[in-house]
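Subgroup meeting minutes
Present: P.N., E.W., G.H.
Scribe: E.W.

1. P.N. recapped why we're keeping a running log of single-chain structure predictions: easier to compare across weeks, and new members can see raw inputs and outputs side by side.
2. G.H. added today's entry (421 aa).
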Amino acid sequence: MSDSFWQIAGGYLDNSSSSSSSSSSSSSPSSSPPAEKAALFNERTLEARCVLVDTEPKVIDDIVTDRGKPWFSEKNTVVDNSGRGRGNNWALGSSVAHSGELLERAMDRVRFQVECLDRLSGAMVAHSLGGGTGSGFGSLLLENLRKTYPKCYILSTCIAPSSASESPVFTYNSLLSIAKLQDVCDAIHWTSNDELMRSVRKWRFGTVRKGKEAVTIYDLNRDAALRLAGAYFPTVSSSRARGPDIGSLVGSVAPCHDLKIFKAYTSVDSKSLTMREKSRSATRPLLSWDKVKRRLARHIPTFDAQKRKSTTIACHQFIRGADPAATTIRELEMAPWALPATTLLSKAPALPGGVAGRSMTVCANRTDAAADLRSIHRKAAGMYEAGAYVHWYTRHGCELGDFVESFNTCAHIVQAYEGCF
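Output recorded in log:
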């Protein structure tokens, strides 16, 4: 997902290269880059303002050596060269004994990125909840970010495993991660593989039913990356351009400590595509804002996994593209006591490199989060009562009290969302 996000963001560098090649010879070579590009890339080195961390070298090595991705280098990547991985075990990934050296190097890379900024208002960590690295080390990294930068907004962008995941311990990993995220994060951007699969089937095949057509990992990562792009790409108003404002987003979608989980839904028109996809849509007309809104509404589920109608607690909208106009999604049934939805308008194309593209993205804190957490709690409780796989965690320092605390935290969050129906 992160790699797909930065591939889309690389369009800002393509735009700057095109504009610089067509500029006059009198232009200064040291002129400041556009604010949209500077928000995501280092002004001097053009490297991405991010740190990639993994316990298995192969994935990151392939990314760093790819000449088509010059924004990655050894300066913003951290790899555990032991090659042991974290064995799909939250306890192994979050253990300082096993991950302390990796954590120290990751924090050094983060500190380097922070020192390149004029100010730090927020940080986002994208990780999975199923594997040992994403869940365990992700929790450890978020906890240390909170301690190191106590006044900074910390946002977790997590991918929950599928309900039919290939490993039963993914449920334990998700449960233990949720308790840690609830404690250290200001907001949790929640995306599940089930939701991505449903979304991809709907926009690509026109139906959510399973068919002969295969949904590839590229499709899932692309859909997740577009949601991130709609929420975190820079915006351009009538006065100036600005980078991602995590503080405003957190303030809009996380009204209180117990209700901090939100999901993002996006609709991008046919002109807002990367170079790889433009050839297939060059003759398509630019969609109207009404059509973009209707497409978005079709991707927002009305009911949760337990067939109960979802209620929206808080909402923040990003509207990007030519002639942006404030509008509302009627399908988002707001709670009677909820604050009005906030909207950010941007004149910049929906995606860098797009042709007058338009997009709408809704970040909504909804009661359907209760169904997702209740499912994790129920499955984990059944396994825990049977004593299944518990010893895999206790052998690496995870105590039974950690499980009990995680169950209580998850149940408390579900109860908080239940009170909003």
